[in-house]
Amino acid sequence: MGGEPAKWVSMVTARTPTNIAVIKYWGKRDETLILPINDSISVTLDPNHLCTTTTVSVSPSFDQDRMWLNGKEISLQGGRFQSCLREIRARAQDVEDEKKGIKIKKEDWQNLHLHIASYNNFPTAAGLASSAAGLACLVFSLAKLMNLKEDNSQLSAIARQGSGSACRSLYGGFVKWIMGKEDNGSDSLAVQLADEKHWDELVIIIAVVSARQKETSSTSGMRDTVETSALIQHRAKEVVPKRIIQMEDAIQKRDFPSFARLACTDSNQFHAVCLDTYPPIFYMNDTSHRQDNQLCREMESCRRNTSDNVQVAYTFDAGPNAVMIARNRKTAALLLQRLLYNFPPQSDTDLDSYIIGDKSILQDAGINDMKDVEGLAPPPEIKDNILIQKSKGDVSYFICTRPGGGPVVLADETQALLNPLTGLPK
Ligand code: ADE
């Protein structure tokens, strides 16, 4: 896009990760402030594989706030954007850049307009928490542009008002969203439990099952659950508080069997609560259930053999995608072999676009091309005569990733999404 050069444009570009909850957030006690009915814990996913990049800019030449998402202009009128913009502007500080001739007093921010461009490096409709990464990136980049004094935990309480799970994307590694007690939400924020280096053996494989827009939005799903499910109260008051303590302990000790048991049972209970909602909510589809069955069978056989031999955890969010967490690279390679055996790509799909992210897991699995996929040996349960239906094309693609770092500012102007002279999308 072209446009006249502006008087001056000040801008910041940042990159923010997405996250996957291993103790789930489901149900609000305040819909406007987005206050949850229980604490939750997540793993931040490596932004080298899944991330949002956002450029925010300000100029006296801009005549209104504007935003472009993945290259298309979108409205900023929604409550979630307005809450974040209002909260950030209220905390803005003086900004001075002598070289560029920029001098902004903190009271000026109320009258200056913003241009925002954001890009998700994964399909927005794939059910991969794009709004979590997106709102976290918006708040983080605006906080840098407006020179806020708040730390990431305080910023997380602002991001929370844009999208609940966005608050957990303000940190890398392992993150807890504390539900808080205050009516104004000031103590409902994210804290880091451990950074991404603490447990870097873990490998995360996501099966993107369908890129269709999900049928029940989380917002209306949660509302229906809180209004109609009896089980949700038991979950929020009795089950989750104990699981949070146990999960923090499992993460601290890198105790994989406990981590896996907690993550899997919590995912199961989340879907049970959805089923207990009237009318019931089904987020998993046939492909998810087939993966779930396969994973449960493997876990059950591990459990029967020895109680601490569990190698893979799974969790399903409010959508059909399976998120699998392998104990280490060796088990991730074995898991990938099984997944490719059971869920092979369609004949016109190349391996390079079927497995994205950290492709080195493929090499560990000894898979270099489609011939290797076709030559994969059947997993042991086939020998045990349990029928496995091969499901070509049911998985759109797999993402291999790991725990990753938190938000960062990208100083290199070539990575900006807005033109530094005009403040319009490049
Ligand atoms: N929703 C989905 N992706 C987003 C993004 N990058 N920024 C803001 N909202 C979003």
From TrEMBL:
Residues 204-409 form the Mvd1 C-terminal domain. It is an enzyme of class 4 (lyase). Its EC number is 4.1.1.33. It is found in: Peroxisome. Residues 85-112 form a coiled coil. GO terms for molecular function: ATP binding; diphosphomevalonate decarboxylase activity. Residues 17-190 form the Diphosphomevalonate decarboxylase-like N-terminal domain. Its main location: other. InterPro entries: GHMP_kinase_C_sf, Mev_decarb, Mev_diP_decarb, MVD-like_N, Mvd1_C, Ribosomal_Su5_D2-typ_SF, Ribsml_uS5_D2-typ_fold_subgr. One of its GO terms (biological process) is isopentenyl diphosphate biosynthetic process, mevalonate pathway. Keywords: ATP-binding, Coiled coil, Isoprene biosynthesis, Lipid biosynthesis, Lipid metabolism, Lyase, Nucleotide-binding, Peroxisome, Steroid biosynthesis, Steroid metabolism, Sterol biosynthesis, Sterol metabolism. One of its GO terms (cellular component) is cytosol. Pfam families: MDD_C, MVD-like_N. Homodimer. Performs the first committed step in the biosynthesis of isoprene-containing compounds such as sterols and terpenoids. This is Diphosphomevalonate decarboxylase. It comes from Cynara cardunculus var. scolymus (Globe artichoke). The lineage of its organism: Eukaryota, Viridiplantae, Streptophyta, Embryophyta, Tracheophyta.
